[in-house]
Amino acid sequence: MPPVLSIFERETHETIVGSKLFQRGERIAIGASGGKDSTVLASILKTLNERHDYGLDLCLLSIDEGIKGYRDDSLETVKRNAVQYDMPLEIVGYDELYGWTMDQVVAQIGKKGNCTYCGVFRRQALDRGAAKLGIKHVVTGHNADDIAETVMMNLLRGDLPRLARATSIVTSSAASDIKRSKPLKYAYEKEIVLYAYHKKLDYFSTECIYSPEAFRGSARALIKDLEKIRPSSILDIVKSGEDMAALVPPELSTAVACSGDNEEAATGCGSTNGRSSGGEMAVLEKRLAVEEAAQYRETEIVLPANGNSLVQETLQVKGGSSIHDKKKPARKKVVKQVMGRCDKCGYLSSQSICKACMLLDGLNKARPTTEITVSAEEEEGSTTLMRHVAALEISAS
Ligand SMILES: Nc1ncnc2c1ncn2[C@@H]1O[C@H](COP(=O)(O)OP(=O)(O)OP(=O)(O)O)[C@@H](O)[C@H]1O
């Protein structure tokens, strides 16, 4: 076996053991997209489970987002993987869960912002798929590159709670009783590709046909540039993310989880997306330059406030608003989240309407603009988990 394989396997084993990721006898659903990361994850977990006798019961869980020419092809890969790794496979589709495929969502809303829908739907779909299997732990193939990008994006957004969630190897939230973990958190994408290559793994390498998420692409490009001058940048960013996460009060990072958002949902589907160079970074840089220039036109004035105390306020001498006026909205008050059920679909949620249902409401309201026919049998016999979403068929026209 080439040393690169054994080193990779040993390091992944160390991550698993060091983080006490699994318990003996645990049933684990591997989020399997057919891509390189989750294929390598399935392969290596099978190897390590047998070699080190973890005692895990592994299965593959795939979400069919309903993207023709992309997900249907990658699911064929997952079906082959199920045979190759001798693991049961469960496939859950957006159409059965939500009454919408991503192809239909994109036809309705366009490509812009479609990753947000997909991310929110996928998170819930993975939970629902795991619940269907009676499994409480889902592992995903997120790697160090993905996490470094997410850290960078949340740093630029000033969103430390979400940054904290992205860096933790295990995430669980009050809004779901299903745990998530990322055993490849410290694995470079390059190592994963090499492992797949040397082990001749069968994976699907086409990227999603819908628009990439520009901001992630920009963060990725920035990290790639940093790597040229500092090769350890990716793991350094992951490490810095972990250190920053330690400063975030737990109730704040939990509140992010409870809001129904997650790193994937907030940033689109994740790592493969947005790998094109985005213009957002250029816009950001331009804005920063303008703001920097504006600083020189500012004068510090101390004003008396509330009679006694002195409050420093910055006023701008010439027109326009001061950069200090562009205060970020005050951090949201942290409300203790209580797990309940979504009024519409009954899914676990800390809100009265879960995020997926909110998005579906918007989609369904706009749907009558398209010519629609409802199939009576389908509506009557629907086993759709979300009963409020009628099984609609868009007529061929
Ligand atoms: N359709 C899906 N079904 C099941 N799991 C998924 C699906 N899409 C993504 N995942 C899980 O989320 C992880 C991150 O997904 P992402 O879209 O960022 O793709 P990626 O980093 O290219 O991973 P991969 O190479 O496995 O596709 C995947 O490794 C996989 O575990």
Order of helices and strands: HEHEHEHHHEHHEEHHHHHEHEEEEHEHE
CATH domain class of the largest domain: Alpha Beta
Number of domains: 3
Uncertain runs are 257-268, 270-323, 370-397
Q: Order of strands side by side in the largest beta sheet? A: 3-2-1-4-6-5
Indicate the radius of gyration in whole angstroms: 23 Å
Beta strand count: 13
What fold name stands as the CATH topology of the largest domain? Answer: Rossmann fold
What is the average of the pLDDT values?
A: 78
Instruction: Please summarize the sheet with the most strands.
Output: 6 strands, mixed
Heteromolecules bound: adenosine-5'-triphosphate
Do you know the CATH architecture of the largest domain?
3-Layer(aba) Sandwich
State which percent range the strand residues make up: 5-15%
Structural class: alpha/beta
Number of helices: 16
Topology:
Layout: H1 3-18, E1 27-31, H2 36-51, E2 57-64, H3 71-84, E3 89-93, H4 94-98, H5 102-109, H6 114-133, E4 137-139, H7 144-157, H8 160-167, E5 170-173, E6 176-181, H9 189-198, H10 214-229, H11 233-245, H12 250-258, H13 263-267, E7 268-269, H14 280-295, E8 298-304, E9 310-316, E10 340-341, E11 348-349, H15 355-366, E12 372-374, H16 376-380, E13 392-394
Parallel strand pairs: 1-2, 1-4, 2-3, 4-6
Antiparallel strand pairs: 5-6, 8-9, 10-11, 12-13
Helix pairs in contact: 2-9, 7-8, 7-10, 7-11, 8-11, 8-12
The protein binds adenosine-5'-triphosphate.
Adenosine-5'-triphosphate is lined by residues 31-33, 35-38, 61-63, 65, 140-142, 146, 269-272.
